[in-house]
User: Fold this.
Amino acid sequence: MEESIKRALIVCVDLDDDVGVKTGLQTPILGRENVLKAAEKLALVDPEEADSNAMFASIRLSDELFQKGYLTEVSVIGGLRDGGLEASRKAMDEIMRVANSFKPSEVYVVTDGFGEEDIEPVIRARLPLVGVKRVVVKQSRSIEASYIIFGRYLKMLFSDPRFKKWFLGLGGTLIITLSLLSYFGSAREVLTAFWSIVGLAVLMKGFDLDKLVSAGLKHVFGGEMPPQFLILKTLLLSTGISLILFALSTGLSTGLLPNETLIGRIGRFVAQTVDVMLFGIALTLLSGSVKYPLTASSVQDSLTILANLVTLIPMLRTVGLAVATPSFELRILLQVSLLTLMLVFAVNIMVFLTMRLLYSLKILKISQRTR
Assistant:
């Protein structure tokens, strides 16, 4: 006889745990009297709280099913204040504990109409979910529905990767740019920068320029790689090319001096630009030498390229000065050349010892294989 009685479990879900936060009660709250006391306490603490209406509605649904001959159990389930996956996991654990204790043949879910729809498919997959009741205040049903829809789209702007990079990324760029220009510039410059950034963003999105640039960079660097790695290689490449162009433009902007020969002009150009030029070349080569996945050989090659090119700067500058200045003493050039060779040798030894030290300290755990 007992087995033929239908057992209905009424679950009032509060994913953001307003009940626990505002009343101090621990969930799950079981039993009609306990749920009623919790609903009254929540209503007294915050008369505008929608969860109290949902709790009263769950009690009413329990009474209606009881009058129809059901054996009922009503409970209040809480999540976490911050919501998210952890809140859903906590709420689902509480529901399963109550369900394993009561053994329901039917389960009914009651919510305040906002935020709990994500957990319903999980309940349906694990328990005999019969119905879901959303409690919305009658006088504001359309406002509540609009609020729910607005909340969903607002959440997408902050959590969905497709939208947050434009909403948060572009918004942050605009705020920083406008703040700096407002401090240093005029209102006209601020408006020009604002609409220029907005127009550039619209242009990139309209023609999918961001996807084209990303695909082009992957084609240049080869293979699939994480976004962070691609950004690093892109920054190295763009910075290196920018330094090379800057050095060229700086060196070519000065014309021939009086009575200066072409050879002398070339020497002066080398002396003036060799430091920036070589550093730009080093960064450009560095962007291509770093491979994904990282290998010990690529790291060592990158350090060697950077160190050797920087070490050559004094010698090349001296060569430029020697060519540009007829009275330059070749003895100084010879001394600098010998010193540079010693530095190159020392730098390569330092790179080798640094790699060995990283291995011995187990800081560098990179496979030796390059394939």
Notes: The beta strands are 7-14, 29-30, 71-78, 106-111, 129-134. Residues 186 and 335 are 55 Å apart (CA to CA).
